[in-house]
Q: What sequence folds into this?
């Protein structure tokens, strides 16, 4: 049927498809429902935060980046000193056992951990710069 320049079509009600949809919805488990609710909550929270930032995405992103770099700095400082303390303890243990290769592997292990802790954000910034 045509209504001016728009063509209108009527889709008949199919009770069997409606019943199938109801049966499928009844099969949704509690864990799936929880996942849907958590995802929808995060989506709504993000939307509310974006609206709270007066839809100025750059301002919102700058706030997130500022707070994120503060948290990153704290985690890097904590990780740095934790690596020093635990590396020192492991080196003393290996020294008591007179295990020189163990000392070298311990130093390298903690060196790599700290390098990842400080280097990974820079690698991610480099990857982000490819798309800016």
A:
């Amino acid at each position: 049927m045509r209504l001016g320049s728009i063509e209108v079509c009527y889709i008949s009600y199919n009770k069997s498809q409606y019943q199938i949809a109801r049966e499928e919805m009844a099969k949704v488990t509690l864990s799936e429902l929880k996942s849907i609710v958590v995802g929808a909550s995060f989506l709504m929270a993000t939307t509310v935060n974006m609206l709270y930032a007066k839809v100025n995405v750059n301002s919102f992103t700058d706030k997130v980046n500022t707070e994120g770099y503060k948290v990153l700095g704290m985690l890097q400082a904590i990780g740095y000193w934790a690596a020093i303390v635990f590396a020192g303890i492991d080196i003393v243990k290996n020294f008591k056992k007179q295990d020189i290769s163990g000392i070298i592997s311990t130093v390298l292990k903690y060196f790599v951990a700290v390098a990842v802790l400080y280097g990974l954000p820079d690698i991610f910034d480099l990857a982000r710069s490819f798309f800016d």
